[in-house]
Amino acid sequence: MSFDRLIERIAALENPTVAGLDPKLSYIPQELREEAYRAHGRTLEGAAAALFAFNRGLIDALCDIVPAVKPQCAYYEMYGWPGVKALHDTIAYAREKGMFVITDGKRNDIGATMEAYAAAHLGETEVEGARVTPFGADALTVNGYLGSDGIRPLLKICREKDGGIFVLVKTSNPSSGELQNLALEGGPAVYRQMGEMCEEWGRELPGRYGYSGVGAVVGATYPKELAELRQALPHTFFLVPGYGAQGGGAADVAPGFDGNGLGAIVNSSRGILCAWQKEGCPGAEYAAAARREALRMRDALRAAIGPVKLETEGSHETV
Amino acid sequence: MSFDRLIERIAALENPTVAGLDPKLSYIPQELREEAYRAHGRTLEGAAAALFAFNRGLIDALCDIVPAVKPQCAYYEMYGWPGVKALHDTIAYAREKGMFVITDGKRNDIGATMEAYAAAHLGETEVEGARVTPFGADALTVNGYLGSDGIRPLLKICREKDGGIFVLVKTSNPSSGELQNLALEGGPAVYRQMGEMCEEWGRELPGRYGYSGVGAVVGATYPKELAELRQALPHTFFLVPGYGAQGGGAADVAPGFDGNGLGAIVNSSRGILCAWQKEGCPGAEYAAAARREALRMRDALRAAIGPVKLETEGSHETV
């Protein structure tokens, strides 16, 4: 019912990194694509098979050093329902390999519709009495513009399935301030208000290590806001996009962490996925190149953040 | 590149209604479900086949009186990738029958990721040079919390494919005010600011009838805000949820329309989908019951709004 499992995995690997699985066909080595097309044709099915094969290689190469993956729904939906099947298969494979899976769907709706999204991505669906798992991730990113009606249905399923959510608070993109940085009358900016709502919602999902099951997305590209929010939202775990390709470095994300080296997980997508292209190595080595990049990122974060101390209430356990 | 096609269809049928296709298994007559299970088992595939069969019957019964359908992604995703295939099949069938399709996905992201969503739901995807259509709706609902970076990639595809978007402005749910009604310093409420952004974005997609391709979602449950926004946003076409099951009536939605009886389309989901259950008629008549309810809704809206006048710049054409 919180991010305890994620935090324990981060501590065990001493690595607060999540690998964003946003696979475009152009990131996938030619040989891997051709193999998929031979089986399924140059179709959405063929493209989807290539995505999954690419992801499987990445997961195999990363699962003992990176605690989590974050598949971004858009890159699967763009290959239609076969792409969405590849999303399902990717989630299942990553979980099988012990990784914590954050589905990046930024879903949002209300009441019964939000319950349907919660069942889809984190829970189970009933088919005439039988319970089946449609996608089965550990956490989901969500957009809180609709208020509590869009969040409460998720809290219920997070409690039942030991999952969590990350609510968009201060996003990493250049135009995020157009709405998020507007000042509210007699109050803070919109993003800060959204952050306070996360703290409030999180009271229903307390965790062992001080962080609730309601996290926040806060971009690495805004270190000032990241530091401000870390102070203001002591129970809210952060998912930090914008590292690497979007311009944030280890020093930029450090303010998102607490004194124990916890409180955030930093995403890198293209940096890891396209490492083989950046290194200029053969396609066959894409997974090894991804691992090398993931290790560089881990070491840069370790240096900037310091050691992880896993403290529960009343204990002082250092990993 | 706008809502011209939708507006023309509304005028031709004299009916500003969209049927929300949010099919839960419990809405589907037993016989229809059993038929699907015989072919596919009591599985996600079986459930998805039942959804599509149900939708096909509704589309056949509604396509000559209702201009548009709005499938809600959540109700398909909850049946996994087979459910998402049913979404695809539903969109294709409704378009084949001449209906305007609004995919209700409330998608949101930035840059290349938003381009992927735009390609997925409104455009085309390239697979090694071949262009394929993943879902191919006419319009998509989106959440604007991330600002222009999340909207511009859609505008490009709307221009190319003659489509549109509806941005969440003031949603129909009880808690929508938690963020949306907060007053900005020296300015309007958050929802009004979001509405102004729609007007601004819409300048890139002007339409023949005064409405751009950037619409807004404004709930029937807030008639005061609906009237305020109709005045303030003269080029923004409204998608109005909350009619029927959520409590809004024809008088509540009337302020969303302009003097020509245009400017909005009103959604009903459960009211139409579950009409057979409400009427207490046999399951075999579900489509006929949906049609009866759709006609009642049309007539109630016509009475509240008055005749539709289709005026382009310089012409005064009455339908």
- What is the CATH class name of chain A? Alpha Beta
Architecture (CATH level 2) name of chain A? Alpha-Beta Barrel
Radius of gyration of chain A: 19 Å
Number of H/I helices of chain A: 14
Distance from first to last alpha carbon of chain A: 23 Å
Apparent shape of chain A? globular
Portion of residues within helices of chain A: 40-55%
- Quick check: average pLDDT of chain A? 95
Give the CATH H-level superfamily of chain A. Answer: Aldolase class I
Q: In the residues of chain A, how many domains can be counted? A: 1
CATH fold annotation of chain A: TIM Barrel
- What is the element string of chain A, with H for helices and E for strands? HEHHEHHEHEEEHEHHEHEHEHHHEE
How many E-type strands of chain A? 12
Strand content of chain A: 15-25%
- Which stretches of chain A are poorly predicted, pLDDT < 50 over at least 5 residues? none
Oligomer: homodimer
Helix/strand-derived category of chain A reads alpha/beta
Largest interface: A-B, 74 and 74 residues
Q: Biggest sheet of chain A, strands in spatial order?
A: 1-2-3-6-7-8-9-10
Largest sheet of chain A: 8 strands, parallel, barrel
List the main descriptive attributes of the protein structure presented here.
homodimer, 319 residues, alpha/beta, TIM Barrel, two-stranded antiparallel sheet, 14 helices, 12 strands, 45% helix, 16% strand, globular
Describe the structure.
- The structure is a homodimer of 319-residue chains.
- Chain A is α/β, with parallel strands linked by helices and 319 residues long.
- Chain A has a single domain, classed as Aldolase class I (TIM Barrel, Alpha-Beta Barrel), CATH 3.20.20.70.
- Helices cover 45% and strands 16% of the residues of chain A.
- The first copy, chain A, has helices at 4-13, 30-40, 44-62, 74-77, 80-96, 111-121, 152-161, 177-180, 190-202, 223-232, 250-253, 270-273, 275-279, 286-305; strands at residues 17-21, 68-71, 100-107, 125-127, 130-132, 139-142, 164-170, 214-218, 238-240, 264-268, 309-310, 317-318.
- In chain A, strands 1-2-3-6-7-8-9-10 form an 8-stranded parallel beta barrel, surrounded by 8 helices. A two-stranded antiparallel sheet of chain A has the order 4-5. A two-stranded antiparallel ribbon of chain A has the order 11-12.
- Chains A and B meet through helix 3, helix 4, helix 5, helix 6 and strand 4 of A and helix 3, helix 4, helix 5, helix 6 and strand 4 of B.
